[in-house]
User: Fold this.
Amino acid sequence: MTPLLTMEGLRKAYGTVQAVSDGHLTARSGEVMALLGANGAGKSTMMNLLGGLVRPDAGQISIAGEAVSFAGPTDAIRAGIAFVQQELSVFASMTVAENIFAGDFPTRGGRIDRVAMQDRARVLLAQLGARIDVGGPVERLSTGERQMVEIARALRRKPRILIFDEPTSSLSAPEKARLHAAIRDLKAQGVAIIYISHFISEVFDIADRITVMRNGATVAERQASQTDQPEVVRLMLGDIGAAGRIVADDVTPGPVALQVVGLTAPPRIREASFELHLGEILGVWGLLGSGRTELVRGVLGLDGPVAGRIALRGQGGLAPASPRDLRAATAFVTEDRRGEGLLLPFSVSDNIALPNLDTLSRGGVVQRVRVRDLALDLIGKLSIKVSGPAQRAGTLSGGNQQKVVLAKWLASTPTILILDEPTRGLDLAAKDDILRLAVDLAAKGVAVLLISSELEELMRVSHRYLIVRERRVAGTLPGTATEADLIAALSAPVAVPA
Amino acid sequence: MMRTVLNNGFPILLAALVVLFGVLSPSFLSLANIMGILHAMVPIVVVASGMALVVMLGKLDISVGAIGFAGMSMAAVLIDGQGWSPLAASGVALLVGAALGALNGFVVVVLRVNPLIATLGTMIAFRGLALQITDSRVVVLPDAMRNFGNWTLGPVFFDVILAGAVLTIVHLIHRETPFGRTVTAIGNDEAAARRIGLPVGRTVFVCFVASGILGALGGILGAAQVGAVTTFLGKGMEFTAVAVVVVGGISLFGGRGSVFWGVLLGALTFEIIRAGLNHVGANPYFYQLIGGGIIFVAMYAAALKAQGSRLSD
Assistant:
């Protein structure tokens, strides 16, 4: 049987970042095809291409053997593609039925036929096993129920191809079971389903076939019955050799810079104890949703009060520290460069100076010379590629923007550096630069905590690993741990005590 | 309990105001005075009906007063200089309103200029255009037009019925048609509306055209009441219209509120206070202070309401 959908040789770059370099996939009527890949593998971009949200740089999409080209989402909808996005597109103040029929209201003499609309909405929701009042506003519904409304809207269009992007991340267990039942029904009706999920065990429950992407390219396609979870994880992560390591295995760590004992803040953090040493890079390893980011945010007290003891190294050794003390001693860099306060219209030097204005001014007046000197110094140290300190941050590449964010923090000489997915969305060379910077800083005695979804990246620079699983610190592994050890640590108990 | 008071705050406040002014000055509740209040509300109700649609989108159109002035200036010149009939000239005024509204829509939708800035610019430009048309003169309208503006059916002014019809039609369009629901969807989340393929640009454009037409109609009805086009026609009308819809509970962020009740209660609030203060012989400057106070109280109540609904989640 020829596939209903084929995507061949797709390429799409955003600026200098090649999001998809060689994307292939097929989907067949009456089949659930799961698309898997680590963060940044290019799954979302592939689906955005299929949904008509972005246009490919190269490659061909065919439906039922005919080449198609979408100028926008409306074209894709007309071609029978419905996309249930992770980001919900519901209208809070409108009724459930109105949300389902937005864009195609049944009318009678120019007026919306509410009776017919609500009847049809009830039928669609019943197909999903959802019991929701179709006349009530969506803002009264739970996130899971809103997702059902969104799926009902997709079904209303009677799609031939239905894409689910992380449909279960906000669903409760019974809701998830109902969704899977509904997907099986749709499959029986001959719909081609593309299913994206981070939860691999869930994928094996529902998928007939699995396509794996890595670094923008499709790397494998398997029948679900002919593969297993370990193989899929290996395909997702790729072969990782210790060859890429840019740190020594046998670094003698300095004294403890940060000690966390029994940190708890349910449901974000269940139990976390660990130590971070000066001069080491501690790699935080866990799946998405395991609580990696919540853990470091919890340590810094960014999401509200937490229970547990946190001690920080000061002049007189380790001493209990308040969240305010911790934040003063810590630089916290995430993938969200703009959220971290990088002001794109401002110059590089102004961006670096802003958090440090107190030390750069005299008598309430900012000393431009000192700002310039500081900026030049950091531009040199981090080898930021700019025409000069006056260049606007918005005109820099992503990697250089991230370096400016780092420079901003380094100007205040932190003891602890927390990097949360610092290289997301950067090209390979920029990733390498950022990692090397982290290594340099650790060599100068800074305690570095690195979170990354890319095992390869983590394995290149970590002196030790902190294993995070189901919102707990499950243990630590030494820097000599192999890829197999680390993958095993995600599911099996960790033998090495914390 | 708190919710009940907040949700019905304005009807309760309005009733209290009516009773207060009625006690202070018994003639305030006379039929003639009540009819006078409704009559005085006519231009603002018509203009605010259009504004309500735009605000429902989460946008603003502050050029409506200037559009009313420009449209009516054109009509006045045609009547005064060319001897056109008031009816035909009013038709031209509505066309001018539609054209200027379309220009606003073009600037907002195609050129993607922020609506507040776009219509601030066109407000100044349209007012300049109108002054050019009339050469900054006061144009006195023929008696026929003034008679129309003050024509009564029994105790009710005819233009009150007209304004009521306009408000009801806009309300029904908003509530009952695919177009109206698309307006609300855009006001809820414009990006989501685009993602699911709703005709966002077209809908926004049509709302600005409607706002322009109703701005012009407000100008015609206002000028007909006084029987002349002066350089003050429609001045400040745009801000009163925004205040009316906001006080009437239509969210400035878009997507929430009732066109009919919002405009009616908002306009009643302002007019009752103006007429009431006038009736008890208060200093006319005092009215502006009170008007500002009402807007503040309404916004604060809306903020409390938003907080309340968050807490109950």
Q: What stands out?
A: The longest strand of chain A covers residues 17-27.
